[in-house]
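seq/struct pair 1
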Amino acid sequence: QVQLVESGGGLVQTGGSLRLSCAASGRSFRSYVMGWFRQAPGKEREFVAAISGSGGIRSYADSVKGRFTISRDNDKNTVYLQMNSLKAEDTAIYYCAASARATTRAVPSYEYWGQGTQATVSS
């Protein structure tokens, strides 16, 4: 069992930055692929980024590539999402999730989810 708690969301202007954190409790954090997803009002939840257990493999959605960076600290059981050059279309609830499978973008592949943190980008 893994419990995930996100933090770091907020209100920022276009072009600004936010750093999201996701603290995990439970066993074997480093054995899980960690992902970030987001959901805007009226839209489906979509993949943002994922990182393998060792941190050696990272994957990004095309819409955030070059602006967002996913990282993890296995000693602190925490995964991060650094978001730079934010746009209005990045406004969403951001969720972190854990998967015991290979690095994946598929929502159903993630067994554990946090409660989400709101990020709002004003133009």
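seq/struct pair 2
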Amino acid sequence: QGRLVESGGQAVQSGDSLTLSCSGSRLTLSTYHMAWFRRAPGQEREFVATVGRNGGRTDYANSVKGRFTISRDTAKNTVILIMNSLKPEDTAVYYCAAALSYGTRRELYGYWGQGTQVTVSS
């Protein structure tokens, strides 16, 4: 069965940049709409960013718009999340997800990774 594997999470300072990667194992990511979600301590999992199958369409949560960028590297079967100007409120476990339909709702996504921790200190 296919799965998603995230990497790149670490502890950083406020204002730093970080890049997260999501790779597909026995899963061809170009056949799915891909997204990043995050869950902060004590909170629900929330939408962060999504990219369509062909990479031409993206959407972002208002809280990250202008700071985060989602993109695809089809040759590497990978989806990237570039995070700039990180804030302490960005601290969360970040999850990669894949869906057959485009959208921002968690319910659309049938494949999920295990998550990678991002911690931003002030």
